[in-house]
Amino acid sequence: MSLPPDQEKIASSRHAEILENWKGAAQANKAETTQRSLMGRQETKEKMEEARRGVRNALKTSASVDDSKADKALSEFYGNWDDDLEKDFDFSDMDTDDMEESIPNRPKGAEYFFDKDLEGFSDTIKELKENERFSAKLTELSEKYGISEREILMVGAKESSLMTNPAAKNMFQILAAPAKEAGIDLKKLNKSKNPVDQLNALEKYLDRWNYADYNGSVPLGLLIAAPSARDKDKDFVVYREGSKELEANPKWAGEDGNATVESIIKFYRGEV
Q1: Helix, strand, or coil here: 238?
Q2: What are phi and psi of 260, to 5 degrees?
Q3: Which of 46, 118, 123, 168 is the most buried (most CB within 10 A)?
Q4: What is the 3-state secondary structure (H, E, C) of 162-229?
Q5: Global pTM exceeds 0.70
Q6: Rounded to an integer, what distance in angstroms lies between the CA atom of residue 222 and that of residue 216?
Q7: Closest to 219 (Cα-Cα) out of 175, 272, 262
Q8: What is the radius of gyration, based on Cα positions, of the chain?
């Protein structure tokens, strides 16, 4: 999806302005890398992300573009800009894992501060990961099921805004029937504000479906939304347009109005 000429002009103009501002700072950072290499490159990367957000906001406020159209358009728009950015600054040697270990006094959950899907929950994630029991359980589940901690947090964010949505009953929106099958005390779970209880319940739910046997090959979001479709092809229609499930979760639907395995997976991965 390409940007219309007027919108591309807005985005290009705003990007050029921001680009010039942070290029100078980035060059200064490069000069400092002899003394503090890792931190200098991290600051430069943060400026690049700031520029990206600035262009998106400028596009949304200066042109009549809604969130979904802006995201799709900017995905292609930035495909061209990123090539130019990489010519000026080489971030290929920036290892996120090494960075996490090397930056002094790095706050818990800082790896999500510039995550396009989870940055809005960064304060919540920071608080959750400062809970040692929650952090340990999150790592345990990640290793047990062969999925990333980010995937678990993404599903929790989609289902309950990580327990900050007052309308959500529990972090992963486990319902009565599957809770009973998994041996989960749903009344107790829904009353609990302890995030560790939420992860313990998720573990029981996943064990009900022998999720560890899949070793990450089945996305967590699909197992939450439609466990019976876990072995189906991507085009399999899970819920048809007009079904009560889709009325309750309209964002699961694909372009044809039905919810397929693929469209559900895309929703939980932040691809729609």
Answers
A1: strand
A2: -105, 170
A3: 118
A4: CCCCCCCCCCCCCCHHHHHHHCCCHHHHHHCCCHHHHHHHHHHHHHHCCHHHHCCCCCHHHHHHCHHH
A5: no
A6: 12
A7: 262
A8: 21
Nearest to 240 by CA among 230, 231, 249, 227: 249
Nearest to 204 by CA among 137, 108, 130, 270: 137
Residue (of 190, 96, 189) closest to 149 by Cα position: 96
Angle at 40 between CA 43 and CA 19, to 5 degrees: 50
CB neighbours of 49 closer than 8 A, spacing ≥ 6? Answer: 114
State the virtual CA torsion across 116, 119, 125, 130 in degrees, nearest 10.
Answer: 110
User: Which residue in 69, 78, 66, 67 sits closest to 11, CA to CA?
Assistant: 78
Question: Degrees (nearest 5) of the Cα angle 107, 112, 113?
Answer: 70
> pLDDT 10s digit of each residue in the chain, 272 long?
455 666 666 666 665 666 565 555 555 555 554 445 555 555 656 666 666 666 666 655 555 556 666 666 555 555 554 554 444 444 444 444 444 444 445 567 767 777 888 988 988 999 999 999 999 999 999 999 999 999 999 999 999 999 999 999 999 999 999 999 999 999 999 999 999 999 999 999 999 999 999 999 999 999 999 999 999 999 999 999 999 999 999 999 999 999 999 999 999 999 87
Cα dihedral 173, 175, 181, 186, rounded to 10, equals 80
